[in-house]
């Protein structure tokens, strides 16, 4: 095996990333806690929204890493570390989720035994939807994600020093196991945390819908970080616009995928017109929610589709950065649309809702902090990866 | 045939050479030239300084046309011209139209791309190019790479081009000639005759297929039979009726004529000859439900199921009807009453008495006294 010299020099990330992250986290948490005091149920749902965003970005990034191993992709090897940095959110999910576990009663209707007693549908769903099993599922899913994150990123980092090609082979095996595990766990997580907020409703495609949003969110986070690093000269000089183009094309593909899945879910329920399914959409068609539903179509599909349609747009750092930020914003609206209509209490003071930015802001702060800390811990280039040389040479 | 110079071609052996050659050709200022490779070489677009293809705009334009055509057609057909309710959906059911719109968009976009490519880049209907059928083409379509500078280029000068191609590393410099066509084949009489022949054969074939072949029955199996069908004309009988009238002077089994037919009421009391046992009442129920219930209702309340298309009869539970004797009811079944027609030809004598018995059962059931209900409950029926 010939040693290749990549002229790699580490360049410190500016401290401002970390301080911004901390500031966002502190401000977000403070305002969020104020919100919790003013309107507990609504801000618990907000906390859940922020938690779902972290699942999306963290677990989605881990999926992208494994996808690269399984597909044998070359082009993404030089930027794989950025994806790995975002996937480092995964172990923190277990801690961030715990406050929600203490508030299952305020979030989930099915957790009240007296509500289940007078509801036939909830009785038949009780073997799955009960508090004990819910907590077990949370820890099983979270530990599975953490386990695979630990194994894969540890091997990847170890390879920088040992340059051992066998580690790539081992990671390919882990990834091949992780992908079906991911398919099941992401469905379980989305059904548990989001779909069961409305326990009467069911949609068999819901896991896929959440998966589409997950991959979009993590991919746009990775794209934004890569473009930002690219513009400021952190990346290897051999990483060119061709790499950016691949990220843009993948984003574009997943926007179409999201649109396809969202439309499939809507059209099947609309066409069958069964009252036990349609009420979920009708709730989102009432009052102000009709505007959120319509805006979601434009924000999550029409705009990013139009922005990324042409070939130069997928390479242009400026437009790519805009599209990536826009999609993260669209994913937040998507989560808002999924989660918040389940808030039923009387609102005493609608000005409280101005505080709703708080927890998502804190979540973005967590992503900044995690990114900064994991950047510090490892190289930006996976120096030992046997595919790195081909990845750097990648041309369209 | 006269031969004219098309250009000068050179062969290169490696992909790096050809990229280098392409960029030097651009630098030298040649514009009318092309590069031939056996597979798409990465980086060639940059080396040749090719601008992005404008074909995408054609695709976009036709795709959008497809979107609007599909939506307009479905709106016109489903909401304006022939509005139909399908599955309880609105006339203009947008979600249901989106798959169709998508398909038409893709169809028009693809067709526009393929046809546009043929027209603008391959100069359809030309089917030949001067470099075809040369030794140069044989090499560049297997394992070599080539550049051909055309003499249509303003900077073209035979010796200069050859010198330039050798200087950038080209081997096997070749002059490419093409034959000047003197006649235009499209006006050839043989070709025109052939075209007309094809047109006649095609239209004749289509006419035969659509007007004759479509209506031929491949297998008749037992669909056509040598038998008379009801209400159809026949040659078998002289009066051409396939349904035969009753023979004069005969009486059908079970339809013995009623002697007081046409009178308002029977002059004497007619005694009910049948015994209301279980079998008889079952027959009565069956016939009642078939012939009487459409107007009188399933329980004789006069609640017609005809929704006002025929006047509702009075209830069978009135005191008047209950106090009539069996013969009277029988008389009305045979004769009819007011708008009720005669049922003489449909219901035979035994069935008429069975219906009378069943009406009595209905009347009893609706007007039983508490003691009778108690007795019925004790008997468990």
How would you describe what is shown here?
The complex is a heterodimer of chains A (396) and B (381). Chain A is 73% helix and 0% strand. Chain A contains 18 helices and no strands. Chain A has helices spanning 15-38, 40-71, 80-87, 90-96, 98-101, 104-107, 113-117, 120-125, 131-162, 166-193, 206-231, 241-272, 275-283, 289-308, 311-315, 317-339, 358-377, 388-392. In chain A, helix 3 packs across helix 17 and helix 14 (289-308) runs antiparallel to helix 16 (317-339). The radius of gyration of chain A is 21 Å and the shape is globular. Chain A starts with 14 loop residues before the first helix and ends with a helix. In chain A, 39% of the residues are buried. Chain B has a 4-stranded antiparallel β-sheet. Chain B starts with a strand and ends with a helix. Helices cover 46% and strands 8% of the residues of chain B. Chain B is of the alpha+beta class and 381 residues long. Chain B has helices at 15-28, 44-47, 55-81, 94-121, 135-140, 158-167, 189-211, 278-296, 319-323, 326-335, 349-366, 370-379; strands spanning 3-12, 33-36, 145-150, 171-179. The A-B interface holds A 263, 266-267, 270-271, 273, 310-312, 395-396 and B 42-43, 52, 56, 87-89, 95-96, 98-99.
Number of contiguous helices of chain B = 12
Structural class of chain A: mainly alpha
Compute the average pLDDT of chain B: 86
First and last CA, distance of chain A? 27 Å
Number of domains of chain B: 2
The main β sheet of chain B shows up as: 4 strands, antiparallel
Query: How helix-rich are the residues of chain B, as a percent range?
Result: 40-55%
Number of helices of chain A: 18
**Stretches of chain A where pLDDT falls below 50 for ≥5 residues?**
none
Pair with the biggest interface: A-B, 11 and 11 residues
The ordered string of helix (H) and strand (E) elements of chain B is EHEHHHHEHEHHHHHH
Number of strands of chain A: 0
Radius of gyration of chain B: 47 Å
What class do helices, strands and sheet pairing of chain B give? alpha+beta
Distance between the termini of chain B: 112 Å
Rough shape of chain B? Answer: elongated
Strand content of chain A: under 5%
Mean pLDDT across residues of chain A: 91
Helix content of chain A: over 70%
Number of strands of chain B: 4
